[in-house]
Design goal:
globular; three-stranded antiparallel sheet; 14% strand; single chain; Kazal_dom; repeat; 29 strands; GPI-anchor; alpha+beta
Length: 785
């Protein structure tokens, strides 16, 4: 009876506050105590002892929005107007066009007060004097956009409707560097600047800024003025500050690091370029990097050359350069420049795309119309704005693109593959390589990429993070090192933001020498990074040139001896020996002898009654992750059709839609992922990660390359040569799959393979700080599966 009494009392408590609008925000709480208070509260005042505003940023912002909604929608005179009004305020997203239309239809005649107070959310008041923005249409990037612009501005539409029409009409998203959007939105912000318009709403701009991904770049600015302009531009004032930021900062060579960072966020460098018609000299370059190798960029380059020839000027930030007839003066050079500006090749070292100083001198000296040039300029002064002074600095040479590529043509099957190049996924989805799809090892036709739901990091941001992941976002309070950590939800919204403790982005000091925050540098043979006063380095053992005795040098981190006595860390990592485990920061109590794959995580029966335990190996990045579970529990009672599609393969080579089906049929798990073909399903193999796998297929399913057949039995030396690094006659290395590859032997492995290597440096202190801020609620986000 006590149970039912408790249940009835709880229901009564919940029902008391059923009409309270703040109930819509309860799912945004982070602590269970605050959530319980929310679902039983009747007003915001009931939360003052259980919910801290500093810990529940999104929750309290939502409550403020609901309070505004109560005041606004209380003016509704019809049930339908009240319903559509509440929908505006209950939505976590910026109101859609359908929602705005619903407010106009339901409230415009009966409830003018509602129309007035939701103006900041819906922009339902028609824009007056649309013709004042018609000149912006001349800045359209293409004819389709220009026609859409004229049509929209001549109609009696709202600000938001015009923006929607422009995006649908070929103008693209509202990016701050696009001249059309600069012109239109800056004018729109000047028109709608009434006090009502400035009321705060919980839109994406309020929560995320215009582009939170680029806010990280702002702290790379050299001058404090550029840092301030950058923060204003990408938080919520870009229509007012972008022009100054572009002119005073992005056009300065001193801010090259800042500009490169912004470019990396907006258009990351991608491998290879092909399929261009106008900029055909850029084709067949599979190993070079480009930011925008697309047909749209190809067309834009053609348009630029025609425009320069027609107008006789070259537009640069804050300057118009008069040019001679470019159809006669180095036409191929001008074509190459237009293609470089649009296709944007990246230098392999710095990812910059500044043209070299010699090319700049030659072109401006020959083709600039100096008679029409304003006084006070010279080729040297102009080139100092576009090209690096240091002759050794990385730059893009025009000469390499004046002729077709000299690389021998390769058939598509032999080229380096980039499945996600060109972004084949729908809007708001992230493309990633489908590791479970390999033509030689997959039974059916499969896509080489997969698309997952993502979250935009701001109203105009093109940068997406995958659903379920956590992201750090700078707080624009003027203080460096202040961040919040947020999660991308399954429905594409950044939520559950939690502030992190602020930490100063101090420089590092090494041997009395100051090293700036964010700098990569070499210390002997190791690559190091300075981040917030902390130096993080690779742990390669460097050879001492003054040391004559070779006995002391083992090449392994911390100069550990190459003995193969594996231990399993409680972070899920198998270390070749205890010395290397301690070198990685583990103590004696953090590991036990024997490889991790030899431990049965289900031996202690950790699952509940009615569940089946199955091994599920993972590596945890933080030792604060306690425990780093190596198993998963599968219900033997649930309907398997309700489980998500996550294919698995049994030891007989039969594939199941998920673990539930495998358990239901009483089979043994071989590996997670679809069953592979063209690989051996039997016979132990040693992976390059030092773990023994049940088969070649099992290693491939874990995205691990096979080192050699049999149990892992040796630890390899570390060297740059593609040669066998283990001194054991029992190990037989397979031949390289291609006789033409240079080959590399992974650190600690024995045999060379045809592959490349990527080294990632990360700060354990920063990982632990994020885990602490999340109060242990995001263990999976700090794991590598």
């Amino acid at each position: 009876m006590s149970f039912w009494k408790c249940l009835n009392e709880t229901v009564q408590e919940i029902n008391k506050g059923e009409s309270w609008s703040g109930r819509a925000c309860c799912h945004m709480t982070l602590s269970e105590r605050c959530q319980y208070s929310c679902i039983t509260a009747t007003a915001k005042v009931d939360l003052q002892h259980t919910c801290r505003q500093s810990d529940e940023l999104d929750f309290f912002t939502c409550l403020e929005k609901q309070q505004t909604g109560d005041e606004c929608c209380g003016n509704a005179r019809t049930v339908e107007c009240h319903r559509v009004c509440r929908a505006i305020f209950q939505s976590e997203l910026t109101p859609s066009k359908e929602m705005r239309t619903g407010v106009v239809n339901a409230c415009s005649s009966s409830s003018p007060k509602v129309m007035h107070c939701v103006k900041n959310f819906t922009k339902v008041a028609p824009v007056v004097n649309n013709h004042k923005h018609l000149h912006c249409c001349d800045k359209a990037p293409n004819l389709e956009c220009k026609e859409s612009c004229h049509k929209s501005l001549r109609a009696k539409l709202t600000d938001q409707e015009i923006i929607d029409n422009l995006q649908e009409g070929g103008c693209g998203p509202p990016l701050p560097h696009e001249k059309l959007w600069q012109c239109f939105l800056q004018g729109a912000s000047e028109v709608s600047s009434s006090p009502v318009d400035r009321e705060v709403s919980l839109s994406r701009i309020d929560r995320m800024g215009m582009d939170s991904a680029k806010l990280h770049c702002c702290y790379k600015a050299v001058s404090p003025a550029c840092r301030r302009l950058c923060l204003k531009t990408f938080s919520n004032e870009w229509t007012k500050s972008w022009e100054d930021f572009d002119k005073d900062c992005l056009s300065q060579l001193s801010e090259t690091v800042l500009e490169n960072c912004l470019n990396e966020v907006e258009e990351p460098c991608e491998l290879g370029c092909d399929g261009l018609g106008y900029c055909s000299n850029f084709n067949n370059r599979p190993t070079e990097l480009f930011r925008s190798c697309t047909s749209q960029a190809d067309d834009a380059a053609r348009y630029d050359v025609a425009l320069w020839a027609q107008q006789g000027t070259l537009s640069l930030p804050g300057l118009q350069l008069p040019v001679r007839n470019i159809s006669r003066c180095s036409p191929e050079t001008w074509k190459t420049i237009a293609c470089i500006l649009q296709i944007k090749p990246c230098h392999k070292r710095s990812h910059s795309n500044s043209i070299c100083r010699d090319d700049c001198y030659e072109l401006l000296s020959e083709c600039l119309d100096w008679y029409r040039m304003p006084p006070g300029h010279s080729a040297a002064s102009l080139c100092s704005r576009f090209s690096p002074d240091d002759p050794n600095a990385p730059c893009i040479s025009l000469k390499s693109f004046m002729e077709p590529s000299d690389s021998p043509y390769q058939a598509p099957a032999d080229q380096v593959t980039s499945p996600c190049r060109g972004d084949p996924c729908p809007v708001s989805h992230i493309c990633s390589v489908n590791r479970n799809c390999h033509p030689r090892h997959h039974r059916t036709t499969c896509q080489p990429y997969q698309c997952t739901q993502g979250c935009k990091l701001g109203e105009v941001s093109q940068y997406l993070v995958p659903a379920g992941s956590y992201v750090r976002i700078p707080l624009t309070n003027g203080q460096k090192g202040c961040l919040k950590i947020c999660q991308c939800s399954s429905h594409g919204v950044i939520e559950k933001c939690q502030p992190l403790p602020c930490f100063p982005l101090d420089s590092c000091v090494l041997g009395g020498k100051k090293i700036e925050h964010g700098t990569l540098f070499l210390m002997e043979c190791n690559t190091c990074s300075c981040y917030a006063g902390e130096i993080v380095c690779t742990k390669k053992q460097c050879r001492n040139p003054t040391q004559t005795r070779e006995i002391a040098f083992t090449s392994l981190p911390c100069n550990c001896v190459p003995h193969h006595v594996p231990v399993c860390g409680r972070n899920g990592v198998t270390y070749p020996n205890s010395c290397l485990a301690k070198c990685a920061g583990l103590s004696d109590s953090d590991f036990e002898f024997g490889p991790c794959t030899s431990k049965n995580p289900c031996e202690s029966h950790p699952c509940s009654e009615g569940e089946v335990c199955l091994p599920s190996r993972q590596v945890c990045l933080s030792l604060l992750h306690k425990p780093c579970e190596q198993y998963t529990c599968v219900s033997a009672r649930d309907s398997c059709s309700s489980h998500a599609y996550m294919p698995v393969c049994d030891t007989e080579g039969v594939q199941y839609n998920n673990l539930c089906y495998l358990v239901r049929y009483g089979k043994t798990l071989a590996y997670e992922g679809p069953c592979l073909v063209g690989c051996d399903r039997t016979g132990l193999v040693c992976g390059v990660d030092g773990n023994t796998y049940a088969s070649e297929c099992a290693a491939m399913a874990a995205s691990v390359t096979v080192d050699y057949r049999g149990n892992c039995a040796a630890l390899g030396y570390i060297g740059n040569a593609a040669e066998i690094q283990c001194r054991s006659d029992a190990i037989q290395c397979p031949p390289l799959v291609s006789p033409h590859c240079l080959g590399v032997t992974p650190p600690g492995a024995c045999c060379p393979i045809c592959a490349g290597a990527l080294r990632v440096l990360y700060s354990q202190k920063q990982v632990d700080r994020a885990l602490y801020a999340l109060r242990g609620s995001a263990m999976s986000a700090l794991s590598v599966h």
